[in-house]
Fold:
Amino acid sequence: MFNLLAANVDGLEVAYIAVGILLGIAIIAALIAQIAVAVGYWRGNRTNNSLGLSGAEYARRLLDLNGMPDVQVKKCGIIRTVLFGNHYSISKKTVYLRMRTINKPSLTAVAMAAQKVALAEQHKNKNAKMIVRSRLQGLGVFGPYLFIPLVVIGFLIDVFVAQTLLFSLIATVLGLIFILFGFIVTLLNIPVEKKAMKRALVFLKADLTREEIVIVKKIYRSYMVEYALQFIIAVLRIIQLILKILLGARKN
Structure:
């Protein structure tokens, strides 16, 4: 019986280490993907588009042509730039573009503008995945980082005030819920963004040259690789957390 229990514990520890190694590899791959996105974004931003339109002008044109005159186009502030970058806000009904995107007549500018307009169109068409993703996006950004602080706060309350395990349990459950929200956002990113990119290419193919479309496709492809890696990292982190909880329970 003891040997069987030890074998199970060893199995959990090996699984925990293996997941940790895979997570490290995935994080490194994601960093490389982010660099590829940044390079593609930078190169596209150095090349003027054949339309001669800025990101703001092209977004406005597409919004008006596709029945969304009520959607605004604005420059990202510092906080939005850091947290979300180029994005569409369903609460503000606004396409937000970075400072170096909104006023530049570059390929990157029209590529980003078209993709964000496509997201606005999904909102207009009441696409459920897009709306759920957008509603949870704030929690998706901050949620995973709240787990440890919540658990620590719950533990301190139990030790110094309540002298029970109740608050630690509540904090752990809340932390797991936040992690789940983050996972849902990461999961929905792939179909929502992929659909928006396909729609954006329909817009762009009517206006850009074949050579320009090739460059835009490379930019979009880099983003999709990054989203896929973010999903893999989210899955591995959840598995790692579950294994850590199981190992802690075994030790106790």
